[in-house]
Amino acid sequence: MKASNIGKILGGFGLLLLFSSPFTLFFSSGSFAIAAVKVVAGLVLLGLYFATNFQQFGQFASRRSSFFFGSTALTLLLTLGALVAINYIAHKKNVRWDLTEQKIFTLSPQTMSTLQGLREPVRAIGFIPTDHPAYEALQVTFDRYHAEAPDKFDYSFKDPRRYPDLASKYDLHEGQITVVLTRGEGASESHTSLNIISEQELTNALIKLTRTSEQKVYFVVGHGEWPLNQPMPMPGQRGRTTSLSEMKQQLTQEGYVTQELNLAGGTTVPRDAALVIVAGAKGRFSPSEVESLRQYLSAGGRLIYFAEAYGEPGPDLSALLTEYGVGIDPGVVADAQFNSGSPYVVLSLFYGQHEISLPLKQRELNIEFPTSRALNVLTQGLAEGVKVVPVVSTSPFGWVELTPDDKPEPGVGERTGQIPLVTASTRGTSGAPDKRSDEARLVVVGDSELLMDSNWGHEGNRNLVMNALGWSTNQEDKVTIRPPDRAASTLQLDADMLNRIRFVSTDVLPLSLLGVGLAIWLSRRNK
């Protein structure tokens, strides 16, 4: 290539450096030194251009190349101007797109509904020094909450070392990183604090701070149910244990208070019961226990029954479930197509039209049933005023395996097709004597293993169970999608590193691409 042609390419790069130096100074880096270097380098490259093309200057005005030179310079100016305008508009509008698979930068529906439902302003105080590695991530989280509810959620940061009076007021320990949520002022102020700072913890703390009363949930015991407060052997896995600790923690975070209930001897359900749960009963219920539950429901009580794969409710409890339109078939549900590697581990996206499943259906979340019983939606033998609907069912490829073995397949006399796995029943009780509410609600879930820690991390399972609790206790704001368990891998960047990244992405990279394009165009033009 001729020296004159190389000079033209270098001159083009020189123009790029000169024209972009104001952008570097005022937008991309703010560094006078870098802008000055670009100006000097641009002038040097233009000097090389003049040195290699000085013989053509006398003919420049009369040749067609003057038009091309002018149009090239104008194109560069317009391109740089467009880049500046785009960056300015993006800075002012500040629109964000969350392209992560788990939507780790998007607030969950539960968080947004909680913020929108705040009746009075809440203020978050982050007791964390500005030089702490978690400071920027927490500030971003606060910004998202404030943007969703600017009039009801505000925040500030306080270094506990500089505000010992506040640290003492909220009983903070030295070196403790804490967020305190407050509402009200003076003597009427109430607050709650949290140390694990995540969206789920922050939203649950908001719910805890703003709730007006606790919901008492009784777990029935005495029939081999899964225990709330101790580890238990994992089904089919010797030597391994699991528990319901994660579910219990979630209940506490969402304002439920749990307590065990033994109905033996005709004990009645306490008056403060917002909900009664039977979690995986393996033994039969006595007639007196069933009668206590029957009276409770007939007065407008709320019950969730999680069936156990290898347990039997007995004829008396089966009769009560029949009154509310639900039958439990023998055997275990299997699905030939929609499963998680084993036909017995059923996956379902097949939702009915019910409040419990509507958010799950909208988000298209699978429910994973490890070993589920098959339910029947009955039309005969129902108590007066009972209505029952399927909430979740198998795919059309499901069947009931009456003799479970390691090679399951539909056999003669085994029920096949779309089989209900979760049902919801209602019954009007406004005229009942000594009523507890105007409507009895019963949810039957074919699988109790959903409650175990090993299955609780499945987002669909967790939301199905918690939505069932929210619907049963008539808390519409708790029928939603909760913040997922986000295993986000983050990289902490300091201010200098962020400035370098911004400079490279908004200055060096675009100019390099423009320069390469200009070089290719000039080299082809001069052939």
TrEMBL record:
Domain ABC-type uncharacterised transport system per the UniProt entry, residue ranges: 215-455
InterPro entries (UniProt xref): ABC_transp_unknown, DUF7088
Keyword terms of this UniProt record: Membrane, Transmembrane, Transmembrane helix
Pfam assignment, any one: DUF7088
Domain named DUF7088: residues: 101-180
Membrane spanning residue stretches: 9-27, 33-54, 66-90, 503-522
Protein name: ABC-type uncharacterized transport system involved in gliding motility auxiliary subunit
